[in-house]
Design a protein that fits this description.
mainly alpha; 8% strand; 3-stranded mixed sheet
Length: 336
């Protein structure tokens, strides 16, 4: 949807709505071939420089039954190492994503904190694994996020993935089986995280809903997000609000008004400022604006604080949907 411009018609009752990237020059097949070559030739890069071997981490191996269910690459798990890092947001790890992913956890962590950091790091690394059913490289989606929505939104999307992935996983029978194969700190941490994620599913989903809508749609229609979000919808009932057609976006007193506008191309063009027929058709299918009387159940909770201007008889609340779509006008009007 494109931006909707307010017109005098809307005064009648304006209501709601009117990291690091892997090298993009390589194809997926080329990256996979490189990984095979590393394994066959003592893990050397294209210039013959040996790639340092990272010995198996003890905690990663203790968590292996769980991690192999989280990580989509069945050939290998990300390497785990320790380092003097200062990660943000208390994550206690830093990720080098890609075909040969490495999770570096902060030195000096307790066994429990290290286990948690590894689980989160591997869940984040999963976003970057090769998927045959992906329409586009994840790196290309991330690049588009950056240039279409900015670094802040891009980072919110990247930060959300490991939590969505773990939420989708911990509600499955596979999670029960994997946790049953663990022991010691690995098992206690996994059990605690399962409870944390299943009990806190509303908070995780709310945070995801806080990402701009068009950014969510960009990644939600492709892997790795698509299958994760589909599973969350199935298992937990959390899903995106479906598109609202124009005829369902107006309050009862305005139904006849909306029907008349829908039938009159001139009025519809005046309302939307869309000159192209295709744009007007798109608007009728997904308006992103609600026209509602004050006190109507159509007004969402976060728009109920809108102050009505006594002189003109309406008020509005705008919500940035992302990507320049500063549509989302949450407006309510007092009946006269």
């Amino acid at each position: 949807m494109r931006r909707t411009h307010a017109t005098p018609l809307t005064l009648l009752a304006l209501a709601l709505f009117a990291g690091a990237l892997p090298a993009c020059g390589e194809s997926r097949q080329e990256m996979l071939e490189r990984e095979m070559e590393y394994q066959k030739a003592g893990r050397k890069d294209d210039k013959g420089v040996p790639i340092p071997e990272i010995p198996p981490d003890e905690m990663r191996e203790a968590l292996r039954p769980l991690l192999t269910q989280i990580y989509s690459n069945t050939e290998r798990l990300p390497d785990v190492t320790e380092g003097d890092i200062e990660p943000t947001d208390g994550r206690n790890y830093a990720l080098q994503p890609g075909v040969l992913a490495v999770v570096t956890v902060k030195k000096g962590l307790s066994k429990a904190d290290k286990a948690r950091a590894i689980i989160l790091g591997v869940a984040e690394a999963d976003a970057w694994t090769f998927r045959k059913n992906a329409r586009k490289e994840f790196a290309l989606l991330v690049e588009k996020l950056k240039y279409s929505f900015g670094d802040e939104t891009k980072q919110k999307v990247l930060d959300a993935y490991p939590h969505l992935k773990l939420l989708s996983f911990f509600g499955t029978p596979e999670a029960d089986k994997a946790i049953g194969e663990l022991s010691g700190d690995a098992k206690s941490v996994a059990e605690a995280m399962r409870k944390e994620y299943t009990d806190g599913k509303q908070d995780i989903w709310k945070k995801w809903m806080g990402v701009k809508m068009y950014a969510r749609r960009l990644v939600g229609q492709d892997e790795p997000f698509r299958s994760v979000l589909k599973k969350i919808a199935k298992d937990f009932g959390q899903e995106e609000v479906p598109p609202r057609p124009f005829k369902e976006s107006v309050d009862e007193p305005f139904k006849a008004w909306a029907e008349a506008i829908e039938k009159d191309e001139k009025l519809l063009t005046m309302l939307t400022n869309y000159k192209e027929l295709r744009d007007r058709v798109d608007f009728l299918g997904e308006a992103h604006t609600l026209w509602a009387i004050e006190g109507s159940p159509l007004v969402p909770e976060r728009a109920k604080g809108v102050v009505i201007d006594k002189k003109i008889g309406y008020g509005f609340f705008r919500e940035d949907l992302g990507g320049g779509y500063n549509d989302g006008r949450w407006t309510r009007s007092r009946a006269r």
